[in-house]
Amino acid sequence: MTQGDWDFPFDPPPEYTTLRALGPLTRVPCPAGLTAWLVTTCAGAREVLARFPTAPPTTAPGDRRPAGRFLTLPHPYRLTDLDPVIRRVTARAVAELPVTRRPGDVHLPLSRRIATEVMTALLGGPTLPQRVADFITARRSAAGDDLLSRLMIHGHPGDELVAMNVALLTATVEAGAGLLTDAVVTLSSTPEQWRRVRADPGLAPAAAEALMRHLGASSPCCN
């Protein structure tokens, strides 16, 4: 079955309805011949993620930065530290959003703008290429325990490093932007859910979690 076989391409295949009726945890065959456990409820998904976290361990107790990180920021962030920045960037992007006829038209003026400006604020530079170049210059005199430093140890030229790492960061930006656009399209296609969130803003955190789980990071807009 392909995405074109059901009404809304972001919805799970119709077979999932049958699997959910079998229980919160169901064994399913995989195309490669393996057998896997399928978690079909939100509560079950949270429990599995809590028991088997996918995030890498921190380098030391109290260190907020994951091991194997892309680069070492001078001032490491928690997600909550970025909340004021995200709110400010989002409010400005929404206020300046041009009138559009299709939900997907918000990708460039809203979704990509928010993702790009938040990433730029996180790195603390005017543009991604300039900030990456600044990091490379700093690493030449003081290497850190991050991917950028390890690449420099192997002798990659400066221009190549800038292009390579800007590409990695751009892919991250596009993934976030694509997810935002898909969330707008999804809510536009389910107006009753959108009305619930508008009527009760307290539902927004749960709605955001549900959208991220429903759409996933590898959404069509990212491709």
Structure characterization notes:
This protein has 223 residues and is mainly α. It has two domains: 1-54, no CATH class; 72-222, Cytochrome P450 (Cytochrome p450, Orthogonal Bundle). The protein is built from nine helices and two strands; from the N terminus they run H-E-E-H-H-H-H-H-H-H-H. It has helices at residues 15-22, 42-51, 83-95, 107-123, 128-141, 147-153, 158-189, 191-199, 204-215; strands at 25-29, 35-39. The protein has a two-stranded antiparallel sheet. Helix 3 runs antiparallel to helix 4 (107-123), helix 4 (107-123) packs across helix 7 (158-189) and helix 5 packs across helix 7. The radius of gyration is 21 Å and the shape is globular. It starts with 14 loop residues before the first helix and ends in an 8-residue tail after the last helix.
- CA radius of gyration is 21 Å
| Helix-strand topology string | HEEHHHHHHHH
Work out the count of structural domains.
2
**Strand residue content:** under 5%
Strand order of the largest sheet: 1-2
**Secondary structure category:** mainly alpha
Q: CATH homologous superfamily of the largest domain - what is it? A: Cytochrome P450
Helix content: 40-55%
- CATH class wording of the largest domain: Mainly Alpha
**How many DSSP H or I helices?**
9
Distance between the termini: 20 Å
Average pLDDT number: 76
- Any idea what the CATH architecture of the largest domain is? Orthogonal Bundle
Question: Count of DSSP E strands?
Answer: 2
Topology-level CATH name of the largest domain: Cytochrome p450
- Which regions contain 5 or more consecutive residues with pLDDT less than 50? 1-6, 55-68, 217-223
